[in-house]
Amino acid sequence: MNKKKKLTIAILKSLESFVNLAGEKFKIIDPKENLLHVLDIDNTSDFHFKIEKYEKKQNGYFQFLVIKKPINENDNGIKKNWIDIKNLESQFKNWLDLLDQYETIESFFDDPIIKSNAGKFYQKFDIIDENADVETFDLEQQLFLEEYLDNSRKKLEKLKKGKTKDKIIEIEILENETEEIKSALTIESKKRIMIRLSKFWGRAQKTGLQVIKEIFVNVSTELMKKLLLE
Fold it and tell me: What is the C-alpha to C-alpha distance for residues 143 and 136, in angstroms, rounded to an integer?
């Protein structure tokens, strides 16, 4: 049977606001055996918000079994508990607020140079598109970016020759980022991909002028032409 029709109308309505929901801090993935599965957009993070199942109480109202991490400002652990479906949106908003705080609070673990560089690159590629938060790049743009990232990885591999061990590690981080961005091209919005690319270029600039010239400066005109195509 269609999974949708295994659920009651009340449950489907309670989840409807999450359909096509997009944001800079999170991504919604295939829930598979769950009802909802949301991840922190940061690939190095294990923060998540998941609805595992639902049940009907004796009074006729429904509950969701929610698993989330972090729990609150004082606990970044994991919690599993039942909530009334009417409280779902407020619970999710509280979780998003925690992600926002992790993004905005300054700490010794952030790299201000990469952050500043990335912000400047993002401004260069400001996509004026009312649907940039929810729509992916079109197929032609996705194929272009895939080729661009493959070529960038090849250039990065060559740039490791003769470099110090520390510099090689920095370049390898960039190589890994090309693969992460490629894997997101067909499933993340234009805005989210531009945030990823901006961070990639920001890190490349800090790594060295030779690096940023190879993977951005020499192809910047073509990048702008393809990605800002109306």
Answer: 12
75-95: pLDDT as tens digits: 999 999 999 999 999 999 999
Average pLDDT, the chain: 91
Distance of CA 154 to CAs 145, 150, 201, 212, Å?
Answer: 14, 6, 16, 14
Write out the DSSP string of 42-92: -TT---EEEEEEEEE-TTS-EEEEEEEES-BTTB-S-EEEEEEGGGHHHHH
Length of the chain: 230
Residue 54 pairs in a beta bridge with 64
- Residue extents of the structural domains in the chain: 3-104, 112-227
**Residue 71: other Cβ atoms inside 10 A:** 15
What is the DSSP code (8-state) at residue 110? S
- In the beta sheet, which residues pair with residue 137? none
Q: What stretches of the chain show up as alpha helix (H) in DSSP?
A: 9-15, 88-104, 112-124, 139-159, 165-184, 190-207, 209-215, 220-227
Q: Which residues, including other chains, have CB under 8 Å from residue 37's CB and lie 6 or more apart?
A: 28, 29, 30, 31, 48, 49, 50, 51
* Cα–Cα distance, 212 to 157 (Å, whole number): 14
